[in-house]
C-alpha cells in the first residue's frame, strides 16, 4: 500500500498545494523507475554494444588514415625531375663516353667499398672525383627516390615553418636532403630559407649545390640560400637552426662502431640539440637511416633520448610509449619499405648494369618536434586520438600465417601487434580501429599481441 502524501508545515507556509505535490512525487517516482530499468538492462545493452563494435571493426573504421609512401602525394614537377635526374647531373657535371661506359663498374666498386670494406674506408671518400660521380649517379638518385616519397607524405604541419627560417643538414654530402625537401614540399619553395649544409667534403657540397641550383631553375623557383660548411658533426656554426635534418649520417660514422649504441644515441642527441634554436618552441629534427637492424636500433635509442629532452615523435610513431621494435638482438626493428616499380626507368637500367638492382626501398626514421610541455613521459597518445580507438602503424609486408591466414606486424601503444586480416595493407600505413576490450592473445613466435580484424 502506497504511503499517503501530505503537506509538511513549511510547505503549507510556502503556499504549495497538495495536488501539485502529488504530481511532483509521481514524476519523481517515474524517473526513478526509468533509472532502475536502465541499470537492470545494462548487461544486455553492453552485449549489443560489443556487436556494434564488431560491426564497425569489420567495415567502416579499418581503413588507412595515412600512408608514408603514397606516390600520389609527390608533386608532379618533382616526379619529372626525379625521372630525369641523370639529365640534371649531365647538365652540371657531364661525362664523356668513356666515363659513361665505366660508370656501372665504378658504382659496383663503390658499393663494395661502402659495405664489405666499411671498417677500413676513410670518411672523406667523396673527395675523390670518380667515387663522388659514382655516388651521385647511383646513391643520390636512389636516396631522392626514398626521401621525396617520404617527405611528400609526412604531415604537412611538420614542415610549417616561418619565413626566414634556418635549416641545417648534417652530413649533407651532395645536398641530397635539401634537394629532397625542395622537390617534395612546394610550400617550402616559397619560403626564404637559409640552409646550412655541413660535410667534411667540400667537393661533394659544391657538386650538390650546382645540382640544387639547376633543379631550382628547372622548377622556375627562387633557390634557397645555401651555406656550405666544411666540417664534421660538432663543428660550430654562425647561428642556431630552427630545423635540423640528417640522412644516412650515423651509418657513415664508422669510427664509432666500437661504442655501445645507447652511448652513441646520447652523444649524438646532445650534438644535434646544440645546433637547435631552443627559443623556438617548434624546433624540429628528422633522422633518416638505412633500414638495417643496427641503424634502426640507434634510431630507436635516439627517439628515447629526444623524448627525455622534451621532443615528441611526430612520425612514424602513433604513441609515446617505449618502442616495441627497438632492434634489440633477436627482436624486431623499426623499418619501412616500398616497392620500386615506379622508380625512374634509367635508374633501374643503371642499377642492373651495375649488378645492384633494387626491388624495395627501405629506411628507418623519426621526425621530432619540440614539446611545449617539456619532457615526454608515459604512453600519452596524440591529442586527436580518442580512448575508444587505437592507432597503429603497419611495419611489414604481407606475412603468410598458419591455417591459410595472413597478416602484418604493426606498432602501437599496446606494443608490437600481429594484425591478422584479409584486407590488404602496405608498410607505413597508419590505421585506426576500435580499442579491443579483451586481453589479446600472444603470438608464440614473435611475442606480438594478436589482433584480428
From TrEMBL:
GO terms for biological process: translation. The keyword Transit peptide applies. GO terms for molecular function: iron-sulfur cluster binding; metal ion binding; methyltransferase activity. Keywords: Coiled coil, Iron, Iron-sulfur, Metal-binding, Transit peptide. Residues 15-42 form a coiled coil. InterPro entries: Ribosomal_Rsm22-like, SAM-dependent_MTases_sf. This is Ribosomal small subunit Rsm22. It comes from Treponema succinifaciens (strain ATCC 33096 / DSM 2489 / 6091).
Amino acid at each position: 500500500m502506497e504511503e499517503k502524501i501530505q503537506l509538511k508545515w513549511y510547505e503549507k507556509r510556502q503556499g504549495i498545494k497538495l495536488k501539485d505535490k502529488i504530481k511532483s512525487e509521481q514524476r519523481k517516482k517515474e524517473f526513478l523507475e526509468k533509472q532502475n530499468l536502465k541499470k537492470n538492462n545494462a548487461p544486455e545493452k553492453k552485449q549489443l554494444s560489443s556487436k556494434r563494435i564488431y560491426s564497425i571493426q569489420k567495415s567502416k573504421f579499418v581503413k588507412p588514415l595515412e600512408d608514408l609512401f603514397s606516390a600520389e602525394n609527390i608533386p608532379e614537377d618533382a616526379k619529372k625531375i626525379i625521372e630525369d635526374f641523370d639529365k640534371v647531373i649531365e647538365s652540371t657535371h657531364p661525362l664523356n663516353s668513356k666515363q659513361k661506359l665505366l660508370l656501372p663498374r665504378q658504382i659496383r666498386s663503390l658499393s663494395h667499398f661502402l659495405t664489405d670494406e666499411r671498417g677500413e674506408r676513410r670518411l672523406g671518400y667523396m673527395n675523390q672525383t670518380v667515387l663522388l660521380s659514382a655516388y651521385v649517379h647511383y646513391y643520390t638518385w636512389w636516396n631522392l627516390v626514398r626521401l621525396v616519397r617520404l617527405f611528400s607524405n609526412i604531415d604537412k604541419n611538420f614542415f610549417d615553418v616561418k619565413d626566414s627560417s634556418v635549416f641545417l643538414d648534417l652530413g649533407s654530402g651532395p645536398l641530397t636532403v635539401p634537394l629532397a625537401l625542395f622537390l617534395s614540399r612546394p610550400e617550402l619553395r616559397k619560403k626564404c630559407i637559409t640552409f646550412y649544409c655541413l660535410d667534411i667534403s667540400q667537393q661533394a657540397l659544391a657538386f650538390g649545390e650546382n645540382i640544387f641550383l639547376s633543379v631550382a631553375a628547372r622548377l622556375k623557383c627562387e633557390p634557397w640560400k645555401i651555406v656550405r660548411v666544411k666540417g664534421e658533426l660538432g663543428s660550430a656554426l654562425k647561428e642556431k637552426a630552427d630545423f635540423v635534418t640528417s640522412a644516412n649520417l650515423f651509418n657513415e660514422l664508422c669510427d664509432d662502431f666500437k661504442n655501445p649504441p645507447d652511448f652513441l644515441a646520447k652523444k649524438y642527441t646532445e650534438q644535434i640539440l646544440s645546433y637547435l634554436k631552443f627559443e623556438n618552441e617548434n624546433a624540429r629534427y628528422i633522422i633518416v637511416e638505412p633500414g638495417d637492424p643496427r641503424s634502426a636500433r640507434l634510431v630507436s635509442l635516439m627517439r628515447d633520448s629526444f623524448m627525455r629532452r622534451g621532443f615528441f615523435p611526430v612520425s612514424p610513431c602513433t604513441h609515446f610509449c617505449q618502442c616495441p621494435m627497438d632492434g634489440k638482438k633477436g627482436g624486431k626493428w623499426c623499418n619501412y619499405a616500398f616497392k620500386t616499380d615506379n622508380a625512374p626507368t634509367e635508374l633501374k637500367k643503371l642499377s642492373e648494369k651495375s649488378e645492384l638492382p633494387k626491388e624495395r626501398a627501405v629506411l628507418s626514421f623519426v621526425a621530432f618536434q619540440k614539446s611545449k610541455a617539456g619532457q615526454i613521459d608515459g604512453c600519452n597518445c596524440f591529442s586527436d586520438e580518442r580512448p575508444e580507438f587505437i592507432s597503429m602503424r603497419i611495419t611489414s609486408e604481407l606475412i603468410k600465417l598458419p591455417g591459410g591466414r595472413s597478416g602484418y606486424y604493426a606498432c602501437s601503444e599496446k606494443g608490437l601487434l600481429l594484425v591478422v586480416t584479409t584486407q590488404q595493407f602496405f608498410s607505413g600505413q597508419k590505421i585506426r580501429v576500435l580499442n579491443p576490450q579483451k586481453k589479446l592473445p600472444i603470438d608464440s613466435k614473435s611475442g606480438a599481441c594478436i589482433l584480428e580484424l
